[in-house]
Specification:
two-stranded antiparallel sheet; about 325 residues; globular; alpha/beta
Amino acid sequence: MSAFSHLLSLIRFGLTSIGLVAGLILVGLAAFIIAVRLRVRTSRDKRRTIVFFHPFCNAAGGGEKVLWLMVASLLKKYREKVRIIIWSGESASVDEILTKTQTRFNVKIAPEDVTFRQLHYRRAIVPMPFLTMILQVLGMIFLTAEGLWRYPEHADYFIDTTGLGFTYALVKLCLPRALVGCYVHYPFISTDMVSKVRTGRDDYNNSQRIARSPLLSRLKQNYYLLLLQTYIQMGRFLDFVMTNSSWTHAHIASLWGNRLGTKRFTKLFPPCTVSVHSQNFSAPKKEKLLISFAPVSYTHLRAHETPEHLVCRLLLEKKK
C-alpha cells in the first residue's frame, strides 16, 4: 500500500472517530436534557420564580451592583409576587454576602427575600492561561449543567447577569417554559476580535507571535469564527436581552438582532450612587468656578433622581 493510501486511511479513520465522538456527545446531551426535564419539580408557589445566574455574586464589582439593584427593585415593586433565586458559586454565608452588599452598595436585602443555590464547580469558568475561550465555554456549559442537575426546579425567568453566553441553549432546552434573558456587560466574542486576528494586528487577544505567523493567524481566525458563529446561534434561545451601554448594545444587536427583534433589546445603564459626592456641594461666592471634563472612555454621565438614589447612566462610547 502506498504512502498516499496510508494517508487517506488515516484521514478516513480520523473523520470517523471525530464523527463517533460528536455523536456520543450529542446522545449524552440529549439524555441529560430529557433527565433534567423529568426531574424538574412543579412548583405550587403562585409567585413568579426568577433565577439569577451569577456565580461571583459576592465579588462587589460593577456587575454585582447591577445584580443586587435588580433584585432590590423587583422586591420593592413585586415583593409578594416574586420568588428570587441566586445561582451562586460563593462559599460565604448568606448573611456575609448580604452584609457585604449593603456595605458596598448601600442595598439592603433581607435573607428571607432571596434563596441561594450553591454551585460547587465555579472554578470551571475561571480563565486559563491557554485555550482561554474554548475552556471557558466548556466550563460555562459544565457549571450550568451542574446547576440544572443539582437544582431541578421550576423557573419562570432565568437571567444570566455574568455573561455566560454559551449556556442559553442548554437552559432553554432543559427549562422550556422559562423565559431566558441576559444582561450583557461585554460580548464574549465580537467581530472586532476576529478582525484584529484577520488583519494581523498585535493586541490583547492576539499575541505578536501569532500576528506574525500567517498559518497561526489563519488557524486562530477559524477558531474565533467558530466561536463567533456558535455565540450568534445562542441568540435563538433568548427571550430578552439587556445591555449596559450603547457600544455593547450595537454589537449585541448586530449579532442577535435578526433572531430576537429590536423590541426585545433594552439598554439598562449601570447605576452609580452620586448622592455622596453631591452632598454639601456649593460654588464659592463671588468666585469663578471652572469645571472641565477630560475625554476618557467612560464619559457622559447623566444623573437621574429616583426615590431611592441618584443614578448615573454610563454610556460606554469609546472615542478614538
